[in-house]
Amino acid sequence: MGIAERKEREKQQRRNAIIDAAERLIFEKGYENTTMDMVAEEAELSKGTLYLYFKSKEGLYLAINARGMKILEQMFRDAAREVTTGLEKIVNIGKAYFKFSQEFHNYFQAMIHYEAKKPDTDMELPCWDSCETQGMRTLEVVARAVETGIEDGSIRADVDPMQVAMALWGHTTGLIQVLALKVNQLEKFNDVTLEDIINTSFKMTRNGLAG
Amino acid sequence: MGIAERKEREKQQRRNAIIDAAERLIFEKGYENTTMDMVAEEAELSKGTLYLYFKSKEGLYLAINARGMKILEQMFRDAAREVTTGLEKIVNIGKAYFKFSQEFHNYFQAMIHYEAKKPDTDMELPCWDSCETQGMRTLEVVARAVETGIEDGSIRADVDPMQVAMALWGHTTGLIQVLALKVNQLEKFNDVTLEDIINTSFKMTRNGLAG
DNA sequence: ACAACAACTGACTAACAGTCATTTAATAGG
DNA sequence: CCTATTAAATGACTGTTAGTCAGTTGTTGT
Is A71 part of the contact surface with chain B (CB cutoff 8 Å)? Predict the structure, then answer.
């Protein structure tokens, strides 16, 4: 009796179709300027149906965020594979993150949206956990690169890999976020480019970790 | 004719009283869970009056943010004055930022709120510029500390002070933000404390900048 | 053919940001 | 002291939107 399976598959497809529709609108108009009615129309469904698949508008946006996080994890894995020493891996992962924030600017925006929320908000959403574990997996890619670096001697041995991974995650997320906000002011008032600062940051990180 | 001056003074007082009222509510219940009607009642004014003093709810929150930024700038200045070498100043400023995020958690939250917003949103608000220049002043305190460090030899000379200041600002803001979000997961799953990671970050920064 | 169940609908409600015609208070002039 | 003019404040009202739910439509198993 493959009917249950087919139904499950169809349910997932519909769910994805809704996320697709929401993405198209939110990525074009922004989260605040997109209404659930608009999403419903774009998905060719009624509004009520959206709420059968997602608990709330935030929950829907969280599902979009989950997609972005998956892409980011893959980019991190690729970045780590491209080079050999641990320190190189770290720098390359950092570059991948920056690339992600540019190429998938809208997914990055979604990530920021959730990192800015108070911890207690909407913690009960089932999607939240999935994002958390996704984040952990991504973090572990970084931590493993640090371990590699300690082993091959490219990274100083007196640090804890997971702690460094978390610190780097915070550093890079924050830097990209701040720069995204200030690009306008940046290039007019001070005569620095976004890349200048990113490179300065990489230089600092490299020196801070070198063994 | 000191009447105009008195009126101006009264206007500022009323404005401050509104911010006070909004702060009390938002800091207790959170921004999303505070309505303008609630603020009006707390301030013992009608809702319409709030809009004579602030363009929007966001504008009011931005004014709260401005208060926080002033406190932060002062803390940075104090932190820089407490120690002598440039590198020490940088580390001490970092510590001050962390302290700010703990002691004035609600102001930090307000800052995050605006750093997470898209650049184009509400850019026209008069308060925004004030926050931007406030931010620049704060950043200059950091940049000056880096300059001092280059001069006294505690910081490597091959970096641009303003670029380093911006990188550090991004790093630290991001790190604290991420940690604030993950404190729960953090201390349960991995057996690290918030302070451990902050210290790891400081260690990396110190090594990355040392001359 | 029909009962039982699942998926879907869209009109409806509640909540809230922001507005504006009207009222109230303060100031200046005669 | 009275009155005209301007400034400050009001709160009922509007428009928008997230979320709901009683009812309809379609699908499956007997």
Answer: no
Question: Which residues, 6+ apart, have CB-to-CB distance to B72 below 8 Å?
Answer: B97, B100, B104, B107, B111, B138
Q: How many helices (H) and strands (E) does chain B have?
A: 9, 0
Domains along the sequence of chain A with CATH: 1-53 (1.10.10.60), 56-209 (1.10.357.10)
* Residue A197 token pair: 């600062």
Q: Do B174 and A179 touch (CB under 8 A)?
A: no
At B39-65, the pLDDT tens digits run: 999 999 999 999 999 999 999 999 999
Tokens representing A194 are: 């976004």
Per-residue b/e over A136-168, b at no fewer than 16 CB within 10 Å? eebbebbbbbbbbbbeeebbbeebbbbbbbbbb
Is the Cβ atom of B51 within 7 Å of strand C at any atom?
yes
Q: What is the pLDDT of residues A74-128, one digit of tens each?
A: 999 999 999 999 999 999 999 999 999 999 999 999 999 998 886 666 667 777 8
Q: Do residue B170 and residue A177 have CB atoms under 8 angstroms apart?
A: yes
Distance CA A4, CA A114 (A): 34
Kindly report the CA angle at A201 between A200 and A204, in degrees rounded to 5? Answer: 90
> Is A208 near chain B, with CB under 8 Å?
yes
- For A139, residues 6+ apart whose C-beta sits below 8 A from its C-beta are A162, A165, A166, A169
CB atoms inside a 10 Å sphere around CB A62: 23
Q: How far is CA B3 from the centre of its chain?
A: 36
Alpha-carbon span B27 to B91, nearest angstrom: 29
Any atom of strand C under 7 A from CB of B147?
Answer: no
